[in-house]
């Protein structure tokens, strides 16, 4: 099992849950065998603690490393910022430069605030939304992080988040007084949305522009019209959808102009950074509340963001992500048909995923990861495309997909569980948006 699994066993005694992010739990991939820790990473290659090298064709830093690991251009800018001092009593000029860049890319927005992680950035946006509207209630669809405003949805009905997040998620520790302040609707369900906003206490809407399904035009149009008519603040969470289909938020592609948009993850290619951009009349209300934190002023985040956005533009990275994402989806589809193993493919092209339509889908998923790992791939039933996935890497993964589906078909002909070397993986992070 190697040094990584030994370390993970130790971690579980020292760190509740073993990791800081649910999506990085080894049990979600391959219990007892996933190389939980890395020593070094470059491009889309990762070396584990035993010096074994893998090609990462899974989540690429859970969606953060859109250019690839240790990108040279981003690292060069970050190293210079480290040498020049990443934190002082004075502010960093790059946060103004980045704000200018973000409002230039999103002409509907005039002002920008920063945070350093996705969940907290949506928390900031919701605070501003509530400050502006003067109303407590938030309606939302999709996943938006771990904060109280969001988990409050599970206080009144502990299944509200089932279609949006890990089923059965426990809001323990979230004040009961928040019950009824966050209400969920399903993406593209115009009727459900309209019913929720009949309540005049709703002052904020939070949703992703797109995740799995293409947006229904009428749905997006209705959301915008209702928000405008009722003075509700519309927040688009672009933490995962941003920068992959186009430069900036995916909402630019769909002609949907929010009041606030939130970016994280891919905006800085692996360095902590998040941005909250919005209309001046809404963002100014941040000043009437108290939203302030020391490390939101450090230098590496804005510097990494500027270098990342620069490279995304220069190399037209979204076009590349769409192309290789489609190639991998096509390889899954072809292998499924060739070996008669039904699957269901979903997700926007740069963030494709599939599930096995089998009697025991999790057994098949675990076997897929197990066999891929033996072939040198960090793989699961999702592929988050990065710029580091060039033709050579993608072709070799597509070849492995054919090989692994052939193996799975043989396993499925008997008892697939017997081919497993360890326990079945845990069911994943469900975002049925
Ligand atoms: C749409 C969306 N919002 C918010 C978050 C939370 O971001 P973070 O994990 O950086 O707190 C995520 C993370 O997966 C996300 O996909």
From TrEMBL:
<protein>
    <submittedName>
        <fullName>Aminotransferase class III</fullName>
    </submittedName>
</protein>
<dbReference type="InterPro" id="IPR015424">
    <property type="entry name" value="PyrdxlP-dep_Trfase"/>
</dbReference>
<comment type="similarity">
    <text>Belongs to the class-III pyridoxal-phosphate-dependent aminotransferase family.</text>
</comment>
<dbReference type="GO" id="GO:0008483">
    <property type="term" value="F:transaminase activity"/>
</dbReference>
<keyword id="KW-0808">Transferase</keyword>
<dbReference type="Pfam" id="PF00202">
    <property type="entry name" value="Aminotran_3"/>
</dbReference>
<keyword id="KW-0663">Pyridoxal phosphate</keyword>
<dbReference type="InterPro" id="IPR005814">
    <property type="entry name" value="Aminotrans_3"/>
</dbReference>
<dbReference type="InterPro" id="IPR015422">
    <property type="entry name" value="PyrdxlP-dep_Trfase_small"/>
</dbReference>
<dbReference type="InterPro" id="IPR015421">
    <property type="entry name" value="PyrdxlP-dep_Trfase_major"/>
</dbReference>
<keyword id="KW-0032">Aminotransferase</keyword>
<dbReference type="GO" id="GO:0030170">
    <property type="term" value="F:pyridoxal phosphate binding"/>
</dbReference>
């Amino acid at each position: 099992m190697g040094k990584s699994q030994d370390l993970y066993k130790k971690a579980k005694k020292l760190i509740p849950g073993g990791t800081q992010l649910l999506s990085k739990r080894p049990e979600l991939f391959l219990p007892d065998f996933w190389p939980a820790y890395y020593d070094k990473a470059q491009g889309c290659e990762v070396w584990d603690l035993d010096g074994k090298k893998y090609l990462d064709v899974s989540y690429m830093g859970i969606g953060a490393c859109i250019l690839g690991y240790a990108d040279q251009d981003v690292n060069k800018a970050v190293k210079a910022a480290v040498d020049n001092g990443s934190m002082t009593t004075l502010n960093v000029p790059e946060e103004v430069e980045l704000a200018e860049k973000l409002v230039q890319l999103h002409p509907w927005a005039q002002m920008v605030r920063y945070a350093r992680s996705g969940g907290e950035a949506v928390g900031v946006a919701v605070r501003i939304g509530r400050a502006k509207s003067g109303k407590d209630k938030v309606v939302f669809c999709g996943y938006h992080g771990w904060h109280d405003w969001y988990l409050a949805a599970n206080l009144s009905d502990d299944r509200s988040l089932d279609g949006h997040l890990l089923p059965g998620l426990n809001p323990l520790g979230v004040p009961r007084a928040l019950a009824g302040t966050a209400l969920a609707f399903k993406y593209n369900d115009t009727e459900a949305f309209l019913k929720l906003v009949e309540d005049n206490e709703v002052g904020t809407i939070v949703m992703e522009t797109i995740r799995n399904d293409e947006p229904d035009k009428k749905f997006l149009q209705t959301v915008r019209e209702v928000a405008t008519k009722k003075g509700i603040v519309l927040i688009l969470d672009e933490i995962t959808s941003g920068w992959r289909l186009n430069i900036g938020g995916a909402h630019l592609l769909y002609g949907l102009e929010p009041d606030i948009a939130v970016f994280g993850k891919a905006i800085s290619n692996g360095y902590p950074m998040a941005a909250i951009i919005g209309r001046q009349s809404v963002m100014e209300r941040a000043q009437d509340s108290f939203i302030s934190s020391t490390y939101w002023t450090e230098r590496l985040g804005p510097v990494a963001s500027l270098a990342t956005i620069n490279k995304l533009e220069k190399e037209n990275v979204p076009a590349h992500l769409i192309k290789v994402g489609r190639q991998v989806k096509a390889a899954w589809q072809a292998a499924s048909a060739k070996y008669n193993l039904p699957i269901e493919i979903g997700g926007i092209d740069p963030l494709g995923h599939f599930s096995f339509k089998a009697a025991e889908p999790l057994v098949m998923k675990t076997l897929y990861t197990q066999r891929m790992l033996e072939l040198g791939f960090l793989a699961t039933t999702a592929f988050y495309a990065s710029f580091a996935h060039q033709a050579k890497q993608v072709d070799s993964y597509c070849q492995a997909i054919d090989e692994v589906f052939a193996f799975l078909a043989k396993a499925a002909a008997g008892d697939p569980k017997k081919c497993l070397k360890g326990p079945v993986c845990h069911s994943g992070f469900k975002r049925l948006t």
